[in-house]
Design a protein that fits this description.
Layout: H1 3-8, E1 12-15, E2 23-24, H2 28-44, E3 51-58, E4 62-69, H3 76-79, H4 103-113, E5 117-123, E6 127-137
Parallel strand pairs: 1-3
Antiparallel strand pairs: 2-6, 3-4, 4-6, 5-6
Length: about 140
């Protein structure tokens, strides 16, 4: 869904498929909504020629989805505010469209409702990594004889 937007912005979009047996507790539609919002923001704040990468990792207790970009990054003093409703990081001239400032706030609330968390790490000028962590569910037992 985000590929045409990334292509139009001259960005490399990479999805690293990890272990397909990873299962999480949560609503698949809400997870899709969160990841789509993270991808949309990554594309919006990454200059042409940059990259957006999606990876998954896991621990025995959690599954993590990471959206990493090579965009403008977020200053340390604004990092705590990015999940606040209506907060918008100013980043002209990269940003060509304005949003409502609700996407990350809603995404964090959706993550919390699924007993998960949404976090961010960022370095100004080097990009950001947003990570969605959800409780891990054991893989379904194989149906046997």
């Amino acid at each position: 869904m985000i590929e045409p937007q990334a292509r139009a912005s001259e960005l490399r979009l990479e999805v690293r498929k990890e272990d397909p047996s990873l299962h999480f507790y949560g609503d698949a539609k809400r997870v899709e909504q969160i990841v789509l919002n993270l991808l949309s923001n990554a594309v919006k704040f990454t200059p042409a020629g940059g990259a957006v990468t999606v990876t998954t990792t896991s621990t025995p207790a959690e599954v993590h989805v990471h959206v990493k970009d090579t965009g403008v990054g977020i200053s340390p003093e604004k990092l705590d505010q990015v999940f606040d409703p209506f907060f918008q990081v100013e980043s002209q001239p990269i940003r060509t469209t304005r949003g409502t400032g609700l996407g990350l706030a809603i995404s964090r609330e959706l993550a919390l409702a699924m007993r998960g968390v949404l976090t961010v790490e960022s370095t100004p000028g080097a990009g950001s990594i947003f990570s969605l962590s959800l409780p891990r569910q054991p893989a379904p037992a194989a149906q046997g004889s």
